[in-house]
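Justification of resources, computational component.

The compute hours requested in this renewal are based largely on the per-chain cost of generating structure records like the one below. Each record pairs the submitted sequence with a full structure-token output. That output is archived, and it is also reused by downstream analysis tasks.
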Amino acid sequence: MASIPTEYGPGPGTWHLDPLHSSLIFVAHYLRFGRVQGTFGGADGRVHVTEDPARSSVEVVIDADSVNTGVNARDAHLRSADFLDVERYPEIRFTSTRLEPGRKRNSFRLHGDLTIHGTALPVALNGDWVGEAPDYASPDDTYGHFFSATTQISLSDFGVGDGGPVPWGGRLVGDTVDIVLEVRLQDQDPAPFLKQIGHTR
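The structure output for this chain reads:
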């Protein structure tokens, strides 16, 4: 396996997903011709970076109930048994299995198992390390790294419904969903600060 460059990205240790400055975005076809974008606001994630970056690991747990497309009625429908069925499957989980370098200097390909609707399947994220900076509110205590990543999934592969047909052809929700991640990792557990400001994950 090709080696992962070590001149960029977080150093060895445990890094935490910063939910205040991360966006977990999905984009799907809606009503056949339209496109709708949503996010998941509740997520807890940890990245364990090792001396050999290729052996690093990622674990992210997303609260399926935190889905948000900006329309309350639509979000309630997405939470229902027609789609995510959050009462039976409250978590969406990603567990990495392999990390390999990408074609560009700051890029990588992260392989892992994604669990949605109780079904776990392998996926691959194409990612980039974007940059690093001290924390805006606590620059002396906390340091962060920024990443972007994308992938594409099929809802039917995970057993997620499509809402049925619409009168003009096609399905209420298209089967293919684009995933876009804009993530900040930080070297301090964000839980105490989130509690302090009243933010719940």
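Residues 1-6 have pLDDT under 50 and may be disordered. The first strand starts at residue 13 and ends at 17.
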